[in-house]
């Protein structure tokens, strides 16, 4: 089937974020990395690992309502085996949010005890929040803080400068802008980031992107395509464009002469995947479960 061109994306403000992160690191006690539960590997920026070094870290698998619940639990087990505290959350509904403060305190329990022994009990914990664009980082912070404290939009690159947010008497958060990295060595990583909206659509060929997503869904979630787009499983598909055309016709998106409106269908497919309307779909499994699907 078809292949989309290699995706590269590193605007200037992301280079600035990298500098800001390095400069801010001495001011915080730990780092919380927000990732997309549908693509936990692809949504982890390798640049962040280099910058954070041995700073204590917590991982939040956000948008977990859009990911396969069984696979979510496999990822929690995987990170636990790696010695990294992790939790699942849905910042839109608030699911899992209440686990955040106890997890932070448990992760930093040694630091809290040291401060108590030095007469510094009650000193606020300062936590840096990082992640790639469009993983729901600002929504997560707003849900924690009980209000719209950080600017939120359903597009990448909205948070441009760092913002301090007081969560409660115990915790203060430093919200950093979303940051991608200079080059995707693995083409699949770029594709999956594009599927979830972490890369701006205006630099992409939307039809090619939708075709690649349909290929994956046809292989791993055929029932979704049959239910949403009337694409029958177990066909002899020669080209992924055939899937896109079938999806267009299945949803009644037609041009004159009964030809499928593939451009309109492509936009619909990506929108419905990103919003979770296609159901709970995971694009990656942890290495201990056989790696990427």
What's the short version?
The protein has 293 residues and is α/β, with parallel strands linked by helices. It is built from eleven helices and six strands. The longest helix has 15 residues, at 206-220.
Overview of this protein structure:
By secondary structure, the chain is an alpha/beta fold. Helix content is 40%, strand content 11%. The protein has helices spanning 12-24, 46-52, 69-81, 100-107, 109-117, 137-145, 187-196, 206-220, 222-229, 240-250, 262-275, and strands at residues 30-36, 57-62, 86-88, 125-131, 163-166, 171-175. It has a six-stranded mixed β-sheet, with helices on both faces.
Strand and helix map with partners:
Elements: H1 12-24, E1 30-36, H2 46-52, E2 57-62, H3 69-81, E3 86-88, H4 100-107, H5 109-117, E4 125-131, H6 137-145, E5 163-166, E6 171-175, H7 187-196, H8 206-220, H9 222-229, H10 240-250, H11 262-275
Parallel strand pairs: 1-2, 1-4, 2-3, 4-6
Antiparallel strand pairs: 5-6
Helix pairs in contact: 7-8, 8-9, 8-10, 8-11, 10-11
**Major β-sheet, in short?**
6 strands, mixed
What is the C-alpha radius of gyration, as a whole number of Å?
A: 21 Å
User: Percentage of helical residues?
Assistant: 25-40%
SS-based class = alpha/beta
Distance between the termini: 17 Å
Task: Supply the key terms.
alpha/beta; 6-stranded mixed sheet; 11 helices; 40% helix; 11% strand; disordered N terminus
């Amino acid at each position: 089937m078809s292949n989309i061109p290699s995706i590269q994306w590193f605007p200037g403000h992301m280079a600035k974020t990298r500098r800001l992160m390095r400069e801010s690191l001495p001011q915080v006690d730990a780092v919380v990395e927000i990732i997309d539960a549908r693509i936990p590997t692809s949504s982890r920026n390798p640049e962040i690992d280099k910058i954070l070094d041995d700073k204590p870290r917590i991982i939040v698998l956000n948008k977990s309502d859009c990911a396969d619940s069984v696979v979510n639990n496999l990822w929690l087990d995987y990170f636990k085996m790696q010695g990294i505290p992790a939790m699942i959350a849905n910042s839109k509904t608030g699911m899992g949010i209440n686990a955040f403060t106890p997890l932070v305190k448990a992760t930093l329990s040694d630091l809290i005890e040291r401060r108590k022994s030095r007469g510094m009990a009650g000193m606020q914990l300062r936590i840096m929040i990082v992640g790639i664009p469009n993983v729901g980082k600002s929504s997560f912070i707003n849900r924690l803080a009980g209000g719209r404290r950080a600017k939120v939009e359903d597009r990448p690159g909205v948070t441009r400068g760092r913002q301090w947010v007081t969560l409660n008497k115990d915790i203060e958060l430093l919200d950093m802008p979303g940051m991608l990295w200079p080059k995707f060595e693995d083409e699949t990583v770029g594709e999956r980031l594009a599927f979830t909206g972490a890369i701006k659509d205006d630099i992409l060929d939307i039809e090619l992107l939708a075709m690649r997503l349909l290929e994956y869904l046809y292989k791993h979630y055929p029932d979704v395509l049959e239910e949403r787009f009337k694409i029958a499983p177990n066909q002899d598909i020669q080209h992924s464009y055939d899937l896109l055309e079938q999806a267009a016709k299945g949803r009644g998106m037609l041009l004159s002469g009964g030809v499928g409106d593939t451009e309109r269908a492509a936009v619909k497919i990506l929108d419905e995947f990103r919003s979770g309307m296609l159901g709970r779909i995971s694009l990656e499994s942890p290495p201990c479960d056989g790696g990427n699907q």
